[in-house]
Description:
The complex is a heterodimer of chains A (about 350) and B (about 280).
Chain A: H1 2-28, E1 33-39, H2 44-62, E2 66-72, H3 75-83, E3 90-92, H4 96-104, H5 118-121, E4 124-126, E5 128-132, E6 153-154, H6 162-178, H7 183-195, H8 204-212, E7 219-223, H9 224-233, E8 240-242, E9 246-248, E10 250-251, E11 254-256, H10 258-264, H11 267-276, H12 280-288, E12 292-293, H13 296-301, E13 310-312, H14 314-318, H15 321-329, H16 334-338
Parallel strand pairs in A: 1-2, 1-3, 6-7, 9-13
Antiparallel strand pairs in A: 3-11, 4-10, 4-12, 5-7, 5-8
Helix pairs in contact in A: 2-12, 3-4, 6-7
Chain B: H1 6-43, H2 48-55, H3 58-91, H4 97-109, H5 112-123, H6 130-135, H7 144-155, H8 157-170, H9 173-180, H10 185-214, H11 217-223, H12 233-242, H13 246-278
Amino acid sequence: MNSLSHKFVGALVGALALAGTIAPVYAQSAKPVEIMNVSYDIGRELFIKINEAFAADWLKKKNQTVTIAQSHAGTGAQARSILEGLPADVVTFNQVIDVQVLADKGKLIPADWQKRLPNASSPYYSLPAFLVRKGNPKNVKDWSDLARDDVKAVFPNPKTSGNARYTYLAAYAFGLDKFKGDHAKTQDFVKKFLSNVPVFDTGGRASTTTFIDRNIGDVLITFEAEVNAAKKEYGDKGFEIVIPSQSLLAEFPVAVIDKNVDRKGTREIATAYLEYLYTEEAQEIIASFANRVQNPKVLERHKAAYPAVKLVTVEDIFGGWEKANKDHFAEGGILDKVFVKR
Amino acid sequence: MTDPMAPLAATRANRTPAILIAVGAVLTALFIAAPLLVIFDQALSKGIDVYRANILHPETLHAIWLTTLTALVVLPINIAFGVTAAWAITKFEFRGKRLLLTAIDLPFSISPIVAGVSYLLLYGGLGLWGPWLMDRDIRIMFSVPAIFLVTMFVTSPFVARELITLMQAQGREREEVAATLGASGWQMFRRVTLPNIKWALLYGAVLCNARVMGEFGAVSVVSGNLRGQTNTLPLQVQLLYHDYNATGAFAAASVLTLLAFVTLILKAILERKAFDRRS
């Protein structure tokens, strides 16, 4: 009995000693400055690379080591966490409205945040594109094919995912174009398109997993960058990329969270981090992850990877995000009308 | 008189246990052993070197450290809470006793994710006390203290529940004798109560520990998903899986499984000890 309690104490001491050997590894990674980048779900791999490059650049310029904490999830949920107190220094989102809410609801950033950096504070952009199975057996070429009876498309739920809102609006914009602005016919088309979706996941990465690992659906619709990543990651499965004739410009807005950086005294480095995203070095990394960039030199180098596509914008077709949100995604909006229960 | 049915009944009786055992064995193999084997098979699918590299990755190491730390912080507090609650409930009479008993069971009946959200609604920036805390630069949500808090809430009943049942059965005669002999409260607890509940206490602690290390729902709400900072092992498994790193996810899962094995072995030893003592 006594020997067992000794053993128990021994095990406890052992556990503490083990914890002690692990702890220094953690302690070493604690660096002089740290900033937090709160970001969208499928941006993990990109920002691991960006952060390495920025840290090296900052060390060279300012002789200061910096670590960048990364958090990735759906941007709606991320915005909510920041409003609840997640001390983000910067956000790098894929949805303008999820940044806007930080100004409207939390007063954490000024209302005109988009004017602070070039291209409406969007250092790169993308568009919804298609990934189809080997040999494109269902011969999917464009949005119109997705309303066919024999085609099953997979993308996340537009109610929870910014990624899916782009997909929904892109399909709607295509419909308006095809039916010469007839909203009734467009909504019939979108309704058919949505009824062809077997599973609505909550986020972009979950839909990729549904399409690839669970083998559900004929087409995956997600950002061009994710389509390319999935094709590369599962090269042996022979997925093919299809760029539709028309798609929607998806901006990737970034912002320094004023209230947090002022409290933590990190405004200088947080601003430098976002400005770094516009440098040739960073744009090259961003382009290598199949995002589209504005830098002319980088654009020239990656020309082959960017098939020409007619891009429409939320501003032009839907009168801006605020209006699109009210018309389509608010309760009782157009999405609720066409999102039929099956 | 001989019963003509006797031989038949005997053979049937002999066959039944064998069939039941076979069914049990098959079900165990299919639903428990196979998934466990898959974890290790997948974790080692790219060789032992990749496995080692996956486990020694700073973020995974940090997750192991954070899970261990959480257990080291939460377990002593819940043991102290469990012992004092059980002692109060079984050795004293007071108003509101039933209410206290129900309150102790509450975390068992509430879904962990609800627990996480309710902490967020109290301590978050839009919550009840959150703004006051934020003004004073006290950060609880999306940091390690939040993980301790919600884990403590979710796992608080384990020790208390284990002890209350035993101590109710034991009654309080022994303590009353000790009191008549002039023992102080502390002496009574240390010399009389503690030796009687020792095994149940350890058993409760082991169960509590298993739950602390595996908690996912509540922690995922309040952690903020910060890589290498607020990811416990269960969260790290999910994160790696979504990072297209299935091998890494299974490597992290294997560590969690091994920790569970250690806990189970400890539990088996304690059960046998307790059984030996009783018989």
